[in-house]
Design a protein that fits this description.
mainly alpha, globular
């Protein structure tokens, strides 16, 4: 193996390790038991990947980046981040982000570096290693969540929010549920693809069921919702990859069937039928607390619609822009540091410029996901 191949192999190993350690790990002695540890692992991993790239470039005198239009979406997002940071009234806050939140410019750029690393390391190669790393990480995360759901948590936690104490290694039921919701479609794909060994496919089938079960046990709607949408997406890609022409002729019946299933699910959810009742109740409680934050974020955005207020500044302006009704109920008891909605956070932080850049980044991520699934 030559020098370039060795460094690329090590970078792939670092990337897989970051996925596993950041998902599974937490440190009870840190400022923020869960988020600070994970952010540190991600930053250290990104620095290691950049260092290996620098060593390779210094040795070969060549910088090789994949020629793809995906960089346009990434570039728009970076421009939005940079401008929203530059116009911020609290510049350094926007650069480093709030403690425990880690949503400043530095952390966003770290994610962009990792996105670029994935493009460089897996363009023309199967992304199966990182998919399998994510699935392996899901095993202890799921098992710990199921232990908590069964009332046998080995740690003594103090919960500060309602709902069952099922948050596994993420410290937040919504984060935990949503992360498993991302893993479920990957497990489904692993169970369907013919390019993997039978053992892996069987394990993926079991993993999909267990991950969905643990996500449901958290009573957070994020996981089941993401799992449903992601699984439908994966099934669509898989079906068109295996029987594309025949399915194109059946497009109308398939669309009608999908719409019918979606309507059935939504009807069952809103009626609280069966096992969806607990999730619906949790979603209703969550909406009750979140809608005022969303309204406040929209009021802020209307004041600065183009450039926003700067990254991680929602809490600075919350008391000034919240409604009189909300102020009468909560007074000065509790502030809020973000609107708990990503599109609204982008609009408040960086206005339309950042929101459009974020949408472009989401679009290129979706495109990369489709092409990656076809190479698994």
């Amino acid at each position: 193996m030559d020098f370039v191949s060795r460094t690329l192999s090590r970078q792939r190993l670092v990337l897989s390790a970051v996925l596993v350690v950041s998902a599974v790990g937490f440190w009870r002695a840190s400022y923020d038991v869960f988020n600070t540890f994970k952010a540190t692992v991600i930053i250290v991993g990104a620095l290691a990947i950049v260092t290996l790239s620098a060593v390779r470039v210094s040795r070969t005198r060549r910088l090789l980046l994949p020629a793809t239009r995906l960089w346009y979406g990434v570039g728009l997002f970076v421009v939005g981040l940079a401008v929203s940071t530059a116009v911020s009234d609290t510049f350094w806050r926007s650069v480093v982000g709030l403690p425990g939140r880690h949503t400043g410019l530095g952390m966003y750029l770290t994610y962009v570096v990792l996105f670029g690393a994935v493009l460089r390391l897996y363009t023309g190669a199967s992304p199966a290693p990182i998919a399998k790393a994510l699935m392996l990480a899901a095993v202890p995360v799921t098992l710990y969540g199921l232990l908590q759901a069964g009332g046998t948590d080995p740690f003594d936690w103090r919960t500060v929010e309602g709902g069952p104490p099922v948050f596994s290694t993420f410290g937040n039921a919504n984060f935990f549920s949503a992360w498993l919701g991302i893993c479920v479609p990957l497990f489904v794909w692993g169970g369907l693809t013919r390019s993997w060994a039978t053992g892996w496919r069987a394990a993926c089938a079991v993993g999909a069921v267990c991950a969905l079960w643990a996500s449901y046990a958290s009573e957070s709607i994020q996981g089941p919702a993401v799992a449903a949408v992601g699984t439908a997406f994966v099934l669509s890609v898989w079906l068109y990859s295996t029987a594309g022409e025949r399915l194109r002729r059946m497009r109308s019946p398939l669309i009608a069937g999908g719409v019918a299933l979606g309507a059935l699910f939504l009807g069952a959810f809103f009626s609280g039928a069966g096992p969806l009742g607990a999730i619906r109740a949790t979603a209703a409680r969550s909406l009750e607390t979140r809608v005022p934050k969303w309204e406040t974020a929209l009021v802020m955005w209307r004041q600065r619609p183009v450039l926003g207020y700067g990254l991680d500044t929602f809490g600075d302006w919350f008391f000034a822009f919240r409604s009189g009704r909300l102020a009468a109920v909560s007074g000065l008891e509790r502030s809020v540091d973000n609107p708990h909605d990503v599109p609204l956070q982008m609009l408040q932080n960086g206005g339309l410029l950042l929101a459009l850049g974020w949408l472009a980044f989401v679009a290129v991520t979706g495109y990369a996901l489709v092409t990656g699934l076809r190479r698994l």
